[in-house]
Write a structure and sequence with these properties.
The complex is a heterodimer of chains A (395) and B (330). Chain A contains twelve helices and 15 strands. Chain A is of the alpha/beta class and 395 residues long. Chain A has two domains: 46-160 and 284-310, Response regulator (Rossmann fold), CATH 3.40.50.2300; 161-281 and 312-394, 3-Layer(aba) Sandwich (Rossmann fold). Chain A has a seven-stranded mixed beta sheet, with helices on both faces. Chain A has a six-stranded parallel beta sheet with strand order 2-1-3-4-5-11, sandwiched between helices. A two-stranded antiparallel ribbon of chain A has the order 13-14. In chain A, helix 3 links the parallel strand 1 (53-56) and strand 2. Chain A starts with a helix and ends with a strand. Chain B starts with a helix and ends in a 20-residue tail after the last helix. In chain B, helix 1 packs across helix 12, helix 2 packs antiparallel against helix 3 (70-98) and helix 7 packs antiparallel against helix 12. In chain B, 51% of the residues are buried. The chains are: A alpha/beta (395), B mainly alpha (330).
Chain lengths: 395, 330
């Protein structure tokens, strides 16, 4: 019996070792170089030769969506600044929990000078770790707390994706035949609500009778649920599906069921050539490059960074001309020019909407004619939190 | 109304099929007296290898200038995922049957190992393929819903019965076959004897080790096929990190809910699948989504309580399940 126990224990230990090596939360694509050079000359200036950059991602580039798109930005930055592979450390598949804290600390230990955390739920952990390591710069995408906290090394960044979504909505509004759009949404947060409202308003600008059903997946990246939700929306009569979720599952589901789709984060035409019309994308490379450059040059990184269509920080992937409705390109180009010139504002009156704030209290908005909502102008995080008439949240 | 019910049932069958396959594998394993908790691990192993199998087959043929065939690609995925699941189960069988290691501990280790195995190779091949591993449209078409002339066109019934992908029919045929196997066939009856009372079976001249090895390894292979359903059908042939997570444990719960009967397994799998997607079709105002997610587990606990209160011998776990057989201790 003793022998048997010893055997069990030794196998358990062996398995634990395997787990330790392969634990998804700590997989690194680039092995950190043996001795972090930053330690020896901690006070010395950071140069392009010595800088180390860390990234914490909620999934990995195989999602072909959000993380893929952000990683494209990383690669653009690496190329622009001529950095070596071992200067960039990626932490993929980090859940929005205590694992994020561990991942951030591991990056600090590996000698990173600047760390980018790319998912909304990382913010609380970033805030905590940033306070402990004032010498390391922390940049968090899609968050809102940097301005509130006032830490010198904690920054938020995002792009005015609502502008690109408005334009993508035009393609959907012109294409729909049932007059009903479907939206696979991640969470009932302002970031998501602002996105789908913009998308809906874009569709409505060319198709005044259009309505939209919204269903939440309660996850940023869960392809199984995303495809199930897309299927449920199609069963409700929606014939153009759009999404604020990370994977291509809504696109492939739309294609399988003979309806159309408008993507997010990535050109989804290769995934679903018969369904994907166009996608709204963010070019993360602009910010990531600017922030790293600023650190090397010894300049300050802005507390809140947000750029839009005019600067190319958000853009549309190529239109699928084979299936898009006639006149789509012209309508999008027209609206795009007006947004860039400032003539057209996405959330402009007359517009009413109702929603709930962070504490669950009902809030409402009533924009008069001629006025518009200043989305993402003061903070980088979206704040439009109202459901407009014509949008139905299915729950 | 009827449209919503049809849509709900269809979605329930699609969501329930991987659970049914995982549960069938586990029923076969447990009937032999092995409690293999590594279902999730074996499903992960089947999920990644099935996808990689199809992918490599396509790549090899495309490189040679031949157009890949969807049916062969699907068969490659089926075979490879079965072998991978069987390999995982073989590790378990060797440890528990030959070395007589603790079954629960070994099963848990297999879960952890399989999860790492799947995610590691998923990421590895993704990076090697330059972004992500995905099969081509030929293989995707082989796993998309069938269209049978005439039958699929019957209103409602055609949609409900004849418009699934082939793996749904495969799973149901397997459940029916397994029901026959346990009820009628000589091997099946011997296997049940081994699971209930290995000492008595041994005395009757049945080779306990051989039966346990075969049932566990084949059961593991079926779990692997269930995992392949996740990567090929649910995520449409794209590897997604952690795509099986949670499903293996639901399959283990389903075995208990189905009270170790493959036939009841079909019904229970549809119920479990239905509970998972119900919130998207039937909305109860004010009920948070998290409550819906809990329902399958609450249902399993209720079934466990009811079956143990009733103490029905027919619906109970095989008596020898979870215990290793020491011939010397008879």
């Amino acid at each position: 019996m003793k022998k048997f126990l010893a055997l069990v224990v030794s196998f358990a230990l062996a398995a634990m070792m395997l787990v330790g090596c392969g634990a998804p939360a700590s997989q690194e694509t680039e092995a950190p170089a043996a001795p972090p050079e930053g330690d020896a000359d901690a006070g010395a200036a950071i140069t392009a030769e010595t800088i180390k950059i860390g990234f914490v991602h909620v999934s990995d580039p195989s999602d072909m969506g959000y993380t893929y798109n952000h990683d494209q930005g990383t690669q653009a930055m690496q190329q622009a600044l001529g950095l070596r592979d071992d200067q960039i450390i990626n932490k993929f598949n980090v859940p929005e929990g205590a694992e994020c804290d561990t991942a951030l600390r591991e990056l600090v230990d590996a000698g990173c000078n600047i760390i980018f955390a790319t998912s909304f739920g990382f913010e609380d952990y970033v805030k905590e770790v940033a306070a402990e390591y004032p010498d390391v710069q922390f940049c968090h995408a899609t968050g809102y707390q940097a301005a509130i906290e006032g830490l010198p090394n904690f920054h938020n960044y995002f792009a005015s994706i609502f502008e690109a979504r408005y334009l993508a909505g035009i393609a959907a509004g012109l294409k729909t035949q049932t007059g009903k759009l479907g939206y696979v949404a991640a969470f009932p947060f302002a970031e998501v609500i602002s996105g789908y409202t913009a998308f809906y308003l874009g569709a409505k600008s060319v198709n005044p009778d259009v309505t939209m059903d919204i269903m939440y997946t309660n996850s940023w990246n869960d392809p199984t649920v995303e495809s199930q939700v897309a299927k449920a929306l199609i069963e409700r009569g929606c014939d153009v599906i759009s999404q604020h979720s990370d994977s291509t599952a809504p696109a492939t589901t739309a294609e399988e069921n003979g309806v159309w789709q408008v993507g997010y984060n990535n050109d989804m035409i290769p995934a679903a050539p018969k369904a994907s019309l166009i996608s709204a994308r963010i070019d993360w490379g602009i910010y990531v490059t600017e922030a790293v450059q600023a650190l090397i040059a010894g300049e300050k990184i802005p507390v809140d960074w947000c750029r839009g269509l005019a600067d190319g920080a958000v853009y549309l992937s190529p239109l699928n001309t084979e299936i898009a409705a006639e006149g789509t390109k012209e309508a999008i180009d027209d609206a795009s020019a007006k947004i860039i010139s400032g003539e057209l504002h996405v959330f402009s009156g007359p517009l009413t909407g109702e929603g709930v704030d962070f504490d669950g209290n009902p809030v409402s908005i009533d924009l008069p004619e001629g006025d518009y909502y200043h989305e993402q102008e003061e903070t980088s995080a979206p704040s439009w939190n109202y459901i407009v008439p014509g949008c139905t949240v299915v729950e | 109304m009827i449209d919503i019910v049809t849509a709900l049932l269809m979605a329930a069958v699609l969501a329930g099929t991987p659970l049914l396959l995982g549960a069938l594998g586990e029923i076969l394993t447990e009937k032999s007296g092995n409690l293999n908790l590594g279902v999730e691990g074996m499903m992960f192993m089947g999920a990644i290898t099935g996808l990689i199998g199809s992918y490599c087959y396509e790549q090899a043929l495309t490189a040679a200038g031949i157009v890949p065939n969807g049916v062969i690609s699907a068969l490659v995925a089926l075979t490879v995922s079965f072998l991978a699941g069987a390999f995982g189960a073989l590790i378990y069988a060797f440890l528990t049957i030959t070395l007589r290691a603790n079954q629960n501990v070994t099963g848990l280790i297999l879960t952890i190992f399989g999860t790492g195995f799947g995610n590691f190779f998923g990421e590895y091949f993704g990076l090697a393929a330059g972004g992500y591993v995905a099969v081509s449209s030929v293989t995707k078409a082989a796993f998309s819903p069938l269209h049978i002339p005439l039958l699929s066109e019957i209103p409602i019934l055609g949609k409900l019965l004849f418009q699934y992908n082939w793996m749904v029919y495969f799973a149901i045929a397997l459940a029916l076959g397994m029901f026959w196997f346990f009820r009628v066939s000589r091997f099946g009856l011997n296997l049940r004897a081994v699971g209930e009372d290995p000492a008595a079976a041994d005395a009757a001249g049945i080779n306990v080790s051989r039966y346990r090895y075969l049932a566990t390894v084949i059961g593991g292979g079926i779990c692997g096929i269930g995992g392949m359903y996740m990567s090929m059908v649910t995520t449409s042939g794209v590897w997604v990190h952690g795509c099986v997570t949670g499903y293996g444990w639901l399959a283990v719960a389903l075995v208990i809910f189905a009270t170790w009967s493959p036939l009841r397994g079909i019904l229970v799998a549809i119920i479990f699948g239905g509970l998972m997607i119900m919130r998207m079709y039937v909305s109860i105002p004010g009920l948070p989504a998290q409550i819906y997610d809990m329902v399958p587990y609450v249902a399993t606990i209720l079934v466990l309580i009811i079956t143990s209160v009733r103490q029905s011998k027919e619906h109970a776990m095989p008596a020898g399940c979870g215990l290793n057989y020491f011939r010397e201790e008879r």
